[in-house]
Design a protein that fits this description.
Layout: E1 3-9, H1 27-40, E2 47-50, H2 54-65, E3 72-74, H3 103-120, E4 128-134, H4 136-147, E5 164-169, E6 176-182
Parallel strand pairs: 1-4, 2-3, 2-4
Antiparallel strand pairs: 1-5, 5-6
Helix pairs in contact: 1-2
């Protein structure tokens, strides 16, 4: 049986550039959420879950408005987090990222993602399509897990706001990354949240 995970990063947060930890969607964020909801409106979703942070909850509300039979449930397993800490094999270029990150944040993020993988990245007894609306680092960790990358490898795996990543979980074979950070539903002016512009 096929179990598909549709991982969507939340829409652009209003005033995110000012370092606010959370907040409502910007005007662009609303349009991004509308675009991804139109893209996925024909998928026969079984379940939907979202991070309880405001920017993710608002994205989920906009998306499920187009899918009246689907109700998204908040879960702390999809909260923004730091999935792992520095490791000896990690490239030195990533060391500055952890300058202000505490051991407590790393421990909490590791525990959260262990539980998230156990909850969502598992085979199903029937065909299932799950929508997960979450954050950049959470999606990066899922992608790293599917590819079997080193623990630090989530660093540098980036998702745009309302970019789409699809994973297929299989019962007798390893999971498959169907696509990563697909932006085909977003016009150029709505491609935000990446370290560099995404014009194509």
């Amino acid at each position: 049986m096929a179990h598909y995970l549709y991982l969507v990063r939340h829409g652009e947060q209003q005033d995110a550039e000012h370092g606010l930890p959370d907040g409502p969607l910007s005007g662009k964020g609303v349009r991004q959420a509308q675009a991804i909801s139109e893209r996925l409106s024909g998928v026969p979703f079984t379940r939907a879950f979202h991070s309880p942070l405001q920017r993710a909850a608002e994205t989920a509300a906009i998306m499920t408005e187009r899918m009246p039979s689907l109700e998204s449930q908040p879960t702390t397993l999809l909260m923004d987090c730091i999935p792992s800490g520095p490791t000896p094999d990690m490239p030195a270029a990533f060391e500055p990222f952890f300058g202000s990150v505490t051991n407590e944040e790393i421990d909490a993020g590791q525990a959260q993602m262990e539980d998230a993988v156990a909850e969502f990245l598992t085979p199903a007894r029937e065909d299932r399509h799950d929508l997960l609306i979450t954050h950049n680092f959470v999606i990066s960790w899922f992608v790293r897990e599917v590819l079997g990358g080193d623990q630090w490898r989530w660093l540098g795996l980036n998702q745009a706001n309302c970019g789409l990543t699809i994973i297929r979980v299989r019962s007798t074979k390893p999971p498959v990354l169907v696509n990563h950070n697909d932006l085909g539903h977003l016009p150029v002016e709505l491609r935000t949240g990446m370290p560099s512009e995404q014009p194509y």
